[in-house]
Amino acid sequence: MALPPPDPQFVLRGTGAAVHTIHFSCRGEESHVPVLFSGSENGFIHVWNLKTHRVDTALDGHGRKSVYCVETMGGKDRLLSQGRDQRICLWDLAGGRTSVVDSVFTENVGFCRCSLLKVAQGRWLMAMAAKALEEVQVLELPSKTSVCTLKPEVGAKLGMPMCLKLWQLNCSSQPLLLAGYEDGSVILWNVTMGKALSQLVCHQEPLMSLDFDSEKAKGISGSSEKVLSIWSLNEQQNLQVCKTHSLVNAGVSDITIRPDKKILATAGWDHRIRIFGWKKMKPLAVLDYHTATVNCVSFSDHKNPSERLLAAGSRDHRISIWSIYAQT
């Protein structure tokens, strides 16, 4: 008989608005306090202390416009945030500072989260939706040098980029980008050459989220439909649909594969978080706590597996924190 789903380990309250993005920073020295960054509709980024379950710092850098992406750059003192003010901000949080040290004006009115990839010590690639409707721009950070602009073929009618994932097989291989579009397609791009390698129609509706497991060369995507699409990349770098997984209710806001590649979590429009085994897509749990759409899910990066957590941010202004590692 299946175990009943657990309750949240704890709940973070006090954002004052819908939570659109979350990101853990839990690695570091013994004295390092694990934190969770969250971005909200009211333009604030909250830095949550996971020991006290309270906000240590509230950052205000997006003119009170919704923040829909937060990522750390090599530690909790360097933060990147993206907002509906069409700005991507780089923050210096070292020594208690709360300052924006640089920013990039995206000129894009959508809500496609940018994607970061560390390519060398102190050097990152960042992919973001560009000003032109179907285009993706790739910059190098912190220099903000343009690497390439990824333009689909004339007449492709892909619509806007909806979700992006930069990745590389290893530090010596070429960086690649998976981009999900409004027409339901996923395209694999070679960033160095600025060239599309493969295209696959995965959904009938716009992609809302995707994640990719480079070790298994397998990815997963969700849309506003009642289906998850699982696809793979063969040795010729062609995308192929493996299978689809039907959902009870329509709408997936976010998908994330746990770093150990054993399980994945989805954020549902039906207020629920679903956990699956990644190998065979076996449903493992339905976490039912929130009272509105779950917008984002994220696994923590604790070194010790027994300490690792799952967080979910919702339109109900709350962030639920779950410990599901004992069961997996």
List keywords for this structure.
328 residues, Lipocalin, 4-stranded antiparallel β-sheet, Thrombin, subunit H, mainly beta, GNB1L protein
Describe the fold and architecture.
It is a single chain. The chain is globular and about 50 Å long. It is built from no helices and 28 strands. By secondary structure, the chain is mostly beta strands. The protein has a four-stranded antiparallel β-sheet with strand order 1-28-27-26, with no helix packed on it. Keywords: Repeat, WD repeat.
Present the secondary structure layout.
Blueprint: E1 10-12, E2 19-25, E3 35-40, E4 44-49, E5 54-60, E6 67-72, E7 78-83, E8 87-92, E9 99-105, E10 115-120, E11 123-129, E12 136-141, E13 145-150, E14 161-167, E15 176-181, E16 185-190, E17 195-201, E18 207-213, E19 218-223, E20 227-233, E21 239-246, E22 252-257, E23 263-268, E24 272-277, E25 283-288, E26 294-299, E27 310-314, E28 319-322
Antiparallel strand pairs: 1-28, 2-3, 3-4, 4-5, 6-7, 7-8, 8-9, 10-11, 11-12, 12-13, 14-15, 15-16, 16-17, 18-19, 19-20, 20-21, 22-23, 23-24, 24-25, 26-27, 27-28
Keywords: Repeat, WD repeat
Protein name: GNB1L protein
Pfam families: WD40
- What's the CATH architecture of the domain at 106-209? Beta Barrel
Report the CATH topology name of the domain at 106-209. Answer: Lipocalin
Q: Major sheet: order of its strands?
A: 1-28-27-26
Number of strands: 28
Structural class: mainly beta
Query: Which segments are poorly predicted (pLDDT under 50) over 5 or more consecutive residues?
Result: none
The CATH class label of the domain at 106-209 is Mainly Beta
| Oligomer class | single chain
Largest sheet: 4 strands, antiparallel
> Share of helix among residues?
under 10%
